[in-house]
């Protein structure tokens, strides 16, 4: 049975027909996973059939999750569950016993279901609760149109278990079908084949034929519309936003083509983006076929659409080839940032890509400083056992991971690097990998066969950034630094020299304001460039940060900061500003704002700020 289990899983993962081997060698085993109770080497899920009803009045999702399973002779199968009410379990249609283990703050509870060696299907009837962390229920006033409620899920890293009982490990990939019942005036969309118009009865059917990990199962429900960009790309948004979103993301098809030219075919058929209400905690989430995105990237000039390139790149690194455990998270994000920069360079030129990369480099330096007391957290390969995997979702994975790959590219040459990455994605398509397997593949397929030596292990297993890190330069940023330096010395600034500046130049300019700037100088900059009134969320965020740190109160900026924090739930932005309040010893102001803002935040953001401000409900 054990050979049959492993063989069947391997066949599913690569979409080929396999025959039972005559020998008893195991083709594949799952790695030890500290963030899931599942024991997939004993019994594993392979397909989900989800049938749920979404009740906006009670704010409860109820229904049944039915799984196809493969059993390796075990008498039980273990799933992950957190803050769910489990009502019944069946095995091959007959009631069976189940139990919930002790509650862990991060991991939730193991859901153990009794099965037989012959069991092919299990089903769990359940309900979500008010504590369900993946779900955010929004009232009409919290949406763009302010006419209907909204719901979205956020499963990464280990929150899918809070709205579906499931084996919530990134190395366990499944296909899924879903039937979702919602109010008839709303539309439901998922990380699957999606509708383009509303149904009359509010019932929606979904199918995801490629196997994906649990954290990529996603659902959004609202009064939304769809508008195509090409035959395989398009956008969903509320009615008042749809035209703006369509215009802002009009380069999506070009991005897909640029990505395919680099690293092979896009294997998910459709690439759509849904812009969610502003409480969405991330810039974007790479749910297959349907990226979830924050409205903070709708700037009106496509200046922040590198986020779309980033989420598209995840279609290869992360979705197609997934980190086996959250200790290997850099394999998802470092590769994706590298790929994102290559897409941006292909479409908009090397200077824009370098500006993005240089901002990431600066973010990395700030992260290294913030983690100076915990240097092990600055390694690419992490040990997060006993911790929430969110602890590793920072600039180390993203920007140190990128810098490692960029430095490697400069060492081996772009042509060899591209051939290597293309083969890496193809070889590992629809499967998972870990850091150690990547190193073996790197050595075998790039370094050793080209007689190249590289300090791979130092980059991955040592703290900080090695001395051979690539140097990133930007003429546009040098220009911005020159203008700022002149202003600091003379107190004069010629606005005409900034006429053609991009958003990234402005961000760099503001972020590099020196600590000895005076309130009068900040007032002059604000009066000249109206930073406080900026409609670009990125510029607003960095300006508000400087205002807090330097006790600038001009032009009603305090009100604008409070308004921003009460309407924007993007964790990066929110954390940056509340951290600034903490650094400036203005915690009373922060606490007063957070008290009103917290109900607007998804649990992912609220949990972070609760710790930062030592908030107690």
Helical percentage: 25-40%
Number of separate strands: 21
Provide a count of the helices: 18
Strand share of the residues?
A: 15-25%
Largest sheet: 7 strands, mixed
Which class of secondary structure composition applies to the elements? alpha+beta
- Name the strands of the widest sheet in spatial order: 5-4-8-2-1-11-13
Span of the ends, CA to CA = 51 Å
General form: globular
The Cα radius of gyration reads 25 Å
Q: Unreliable runs, pLDDT <50, ≥5 residues?
A: 1-27
Question: Quick check: average pLDDT?
Answer: 94
Task: Please tell me about this protein's structure.
The structure is a single chain. This protein is α+β, with helices and mostly antiparallel strands and 617 residues long. The chain has a seven-stranded mixed beta sheet with strand order 5-4-8-2-1-11-13. Strands 15-16-17-19-18 form a five-stranded mixed beta sheet. β4 and β5 form a beta hairpin.
Q: Could you name the key traits of this structure?
A:
617 residues, alpha+beta, 7-stranded mixed β-sheet, 5-stranded mixed β-sheet, 21 strands, globular, disordered N terminus
Briefly characterize the structure.
The protein is of the alpha+beta class. The chain is built from 18 helices and 21 strands. It has helices spanning 2-14, 242-248, 252-263, 306-313, 329-348, 350-370, 395-412, 414-427, 435-447, 456-461, 475-490, 503-511, 519-529, 537-549, 557-567, 571-583, 587-597, 603-613, and strands spanning 43-55, 60-71, 76-81, 84-91, 94-95, 98-100, 109-114, 121-128, 135-138, 150-153, 173-181, 187-190, 203-213, 219-222, 224-228, 233-238, 271-275, 284-285, 290-293, 321-323, 431-433.
């Amino acid at each position: 049975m054990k050979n049959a289990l492993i063989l069947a899983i391997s066949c599913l993962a690569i979409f080929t027909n396999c025959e039972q081997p005559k020998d008893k060698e195991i083709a594949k085993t799952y790695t030890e996973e500290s963030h899931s109770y599942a024991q997939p080497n004993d019994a594993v899920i392979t397909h989900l059939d989800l049938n749920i009803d979404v009740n906006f009045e009670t704010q409860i999702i109820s229904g049944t999750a039915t799984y196809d399973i493969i059993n390796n002779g075990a008498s039980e199968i273990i799933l992950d569950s957190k803050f769910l009410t489990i009502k019944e379990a069946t095995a091959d249609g007959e009631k069976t016993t189940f139990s919930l283990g002790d509650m862990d703050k991060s991991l939730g509870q193991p859901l153990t279901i009794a099965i037989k060696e012959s069991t092919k299907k299990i089903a769990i009837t359940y309900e979500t609760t008010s504590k369900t962390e993946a779900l955010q229920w929004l009232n009409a006033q919290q949406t763009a149109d302010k006419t209907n409620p909204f719901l979205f899920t956020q499963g990464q890293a280990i929150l899918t278990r809070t709205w579906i009982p499931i084996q919530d490990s990134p190395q366990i990939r499944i296909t899924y079908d879903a039937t979702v019942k919602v109010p008839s005036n709303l539309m439901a969309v998922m990380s699957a084949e999606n509708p383009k118009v509303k149904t009359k009865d509010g019932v929606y059917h979904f199918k995801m034929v490629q196997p994906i990990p649990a954290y990529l199962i996603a659902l959004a429900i609202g009064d939304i519309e769809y508008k195509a960009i090409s035959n395989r790309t398009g956008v969903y948004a509320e009615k008042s936003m749809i035209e703006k979103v369509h215009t802002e993301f009009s380069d999506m098809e070009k991005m897909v083509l640029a990505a395919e030219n680099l690293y092979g075919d896009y294997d998910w058929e459709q690439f759509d983006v849904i812009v969610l209400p502003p409480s969405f905690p991330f810039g974007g989430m790479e749910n297959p076929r349907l990226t979830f995105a924050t409205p903070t990237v709708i700037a009106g000039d496509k200046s922040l659409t590198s986020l779309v390139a980033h989420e598209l790149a995840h279609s290869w690194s992360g979705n197609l080839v997934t980190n086996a455990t959250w200790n290997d998270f850099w394999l998802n994000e470092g590769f994706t940032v590298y790929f994102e920069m290559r897409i941006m360079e292909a479409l908009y030129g090397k200077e824009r890509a370098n500006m993005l990369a240089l901002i990431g480099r600066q973010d990395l330096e700030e992260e290294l400083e913030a983690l100076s007391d915990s240097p092990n957290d600055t390694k690419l390969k992490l040990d997060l056992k006993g911790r929430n995997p969110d602890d590793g979702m920072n600039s180390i994975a993203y920007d140190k991971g990128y810098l490692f790959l960029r430095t490697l590219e400069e060492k081996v040459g772009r042509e060899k690097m591209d051939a290597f990455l293309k083969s890496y994605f193809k070889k590992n398509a629809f499967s998972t990998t870990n850091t150690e397997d990547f190193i073996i593949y790197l050595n075998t397929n790039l370094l050793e066969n080209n007689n190249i030596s590289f300090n791979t292990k130092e980059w991955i297993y040592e703290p900080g950034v090695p001395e051979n890190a690539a140097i990133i330069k930007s003429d546009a940023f040098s220009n911005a630094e020159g203008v700022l330096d002149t202003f600091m010395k003379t107190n004069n600034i010629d606005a005409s020299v900034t006429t053609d500046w991009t958003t990234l130049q402005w961000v760099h300019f503001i972020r590099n304001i020196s600590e000895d700037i005076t309130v009068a100088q900040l007032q002059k900059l604000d009066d000249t460039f109206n930073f406080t009134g900026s409609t670009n969320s990125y510029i607003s965020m960095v300006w508000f940060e400087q205002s807090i740190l330097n006790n600038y109160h001009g032009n009603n900026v305090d009100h604008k900061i409070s308004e921003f924090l009460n309407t924007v739930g993007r964790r990066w932005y929110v954390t940056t500003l509340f951290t600034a309040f903490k650094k400036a010893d203005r915690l009373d102001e922060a606490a007063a704002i957070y008290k009103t803002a917290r109900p607007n935040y998804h649990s992912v953001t609220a949990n972070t700020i609760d710790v930062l401000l030592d908030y107690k409900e």
